[in-house]
Amino acid sequence: MSPVSELLNSPVDPLHVLNRRKERVAAILDRTRVMFAEGVPAIDITTARCKAIVAVVCEFMEEAIAPFSDDVVSELRKGTAIVAVGGTGRGELCPASDVDLLFLDGGTASAPFRDAVSRCVQALYDARLQVGQSLRTIAECVTLAREEPEVATSLVEARHLWGSEKLVDQLQRSFAKTVVKKRQRAFILDCLTARVEEGPQSQELEPDVKNSRGGLRDLHLLRWLGFALTGRPELESLLKANLLTAEEVQTLRDAREFLTRIRIDLHLRADREQDRLTRDEQLRITRDRGIEESPTQRAVERLMQEYFQHSTNISRITRRFANRHRPRSMGRAARNLLVGHRADRYLRVHPDEVDTPARHLSKVCSSVESILRMYRLAALSDLAPSPRLMEGVSDAVPRLPADVSRESAQLFMDILGCPNSLPAILREMADNRLLDLLIPDFTHARCLMQFNQYHHYTVDEHTLRTIEVVTSYEQEDSPVGAAYRALKHKELVHLALILHDLGKGMKERHSIIGERIAERIGPRLGLQPKHVEQVMFLVRQHLEMADIAFRRDTADPDLLVKFSHQVGSPELLRMLFVLTAADVTGVGPGVWTDWKAELLSDLFNRCMLILSGKHYSYFEQERMQEVKRKVASIIVPIDSAYPEAERQSWIEKQLAGVSAYYLTCTSPEQIASDLDVIQRIDDQEIHVSGLNEEATQTVEYRIITRSKVATDGCFHRICGVLAAKRLEIIAADINTTDEGTIIDRFRVLDSDFSGNSPKERIDEVAQVLTKVLRGDETVDAVFHRNKRFGANRSQPTVSNLPARVVIDNASSDSRTIIDVFAHDCPGLLFRVSRVLYELDLSIDLAKISTHFDQVVDVFYVTERDDSKVLDGPRTDEIRQRLTALLEELSTPPS
Question: Is the pTM of this model over 0.85?
Fold first, then answer.
């Protein structure tokens, strides 16, 4: 007996009907899981699932109309229809995809039809299907499709499911004629615009399988454009019309299969629509597929490189197709003809592009030299090549010789010297692989990923983004912008950025391999020996300046002199400064901050002093004396009866023992404010203040007290309070004067608030700090009182870089430098600083930063008696204790 007959011939038990509906859909999902586990091709799975779901839709509609009279039912079958649209119309449904349905009303049975639709949709929801539905007439569909691209693209896939086939045919013909054919240009532009606005457009390391660049939605875009051009959306129609090659169609089919299988896997795992391929899911799928690591790549990196190869192919073919068929207005063509002028024999420069007549295309694309002349003209004119030229170059590059002539090399370096147009041209050259011909090592970086939580893009995408960043400095009013504009050879920095990460994905350190690549590529591109050496230096040292700025005491004269002498010249320092800023910014959104800009610019300025001809220590002493003179002129006199000389002497006495970092990195106004506090507080007082920093979106907490007041272990107790209050410590400066006055400052991010922290929050933190430092409350009690559900859970570690401890006893004559490389977790700095306290070490300076790959906490320490830590058993003890802590923190709780 059919379900409908059962419904009509037996008493209706609503619970029985509900359970039957759920079981029916659950059985389809179970079948999907079995097919997936058995390795059935992904497209076959989505097709089978769609067919089964469509049968359910039709069955539920039959149930919905069963109570009506025969005449009404007959009228419904003749005058209404259910139309599959979107993914359902394509015949492809992933496990958690919406079932997209259009209930089409011919206008003759509106009231009963709406009642039936309501019951049918409710039944689908009861069965736990996600339904995207609409109820419209043909006229409403056509009108809405002209206004909303999303409606129009869904109707491209319109397919009859139930009811009047004649009505659906009428809809299809009316839509094709009125929405597409009569306004083909507008329809194509709408499709292209909607795709650009719809989803992420970059090669993200956690891609959206559907919406990211090169995702399944790009394949849908091809179908929509194909429908506009041929009247059919299938890839086969584009092949028959010679709009795609057989090779391109096969490449797209392979990519669709790969991405669809990933999407099915994500849906089945999450039991909901989940299209973001997160790092956790990447690891799981890698394990499930049994992918093994190679000598140079982790297994997950191999999986994702294959993913990005497929998505890049989709993106490349779709973009080329869109460029070929993007409508061009008659007015634009006429303007180009009238205003354009000939250049370089075969080329024409138009107001908005560089082009060539069709008869000359083969000549322009006949050699590397000819193609590069075209790109140089485009770069000098600040214009893009026309779609015809881009298509011609893409077709020609695979047939070009791999050697680089002297003319080709010079043309390429000329192009690298044009900041305004370089990003777009270089991205186009990467897309058509001309860049690989000039720099063969770029091929290795294609779709190469680093599996960690700090990089957002593949190596090739990161490289291209650094070029976009560095050329933007031409218009930027900042220290790095001024340095970039002052460069005499910008093309060398641009080349160094192209090369700087090409050594990744190999066993040896990538900067060392990159230096060897630069040594080989420099002469290939015709660089003078001194310029080859500069590019080699920039590639080899591209991490050094950031390391020093973010992890070292930039007030240490010995460190600055050593680094400055290593760089050797103001011009090379400018190059490294600019390259470093672009590299850090290109890692991903939010990585470059005002705080990092401040640190890097400060290091640049200090080193420029040395390289300008005078030893930095001279400037340091002069600067500190100047700071003290300014402080004396600012500070409120201690007693007006005291002469100026005595006030100066008091200031010198109060500041004796503070670090050079404090004196040179703190404004005279702030030092004067600190001294004002020092003269006002008594021997039992603790002064805590907090100030919002607008530019960096941070809060600076300052603690001033006498050393005999604060309980033992001041630094790690402060860290504990800040951690308990969910404040992320970015930097810390710890000072104890010869007079026994503590001046500590901590710069923090308060993620509990967007923008400035409110005064109530700052006051609350200050009160808790005071209580803990007095010994009135313990850090453990503060943690317990501020505990949130789930707050003690750290994020999963995805980087393959090991946690480690590095002790440097050579860089400073007076202090030992401890680098703690770790994966971030709540209270990390507090736990580390407590171990240092338990080891009887005094912390002089702390620098905390999220480095390119890991959290890096850097401590400048001495023994409690201010002596330097001795090498041997003592440093071994420190390393062992800290390493044991990191191992404990990285071990998941049982």
Answer: no
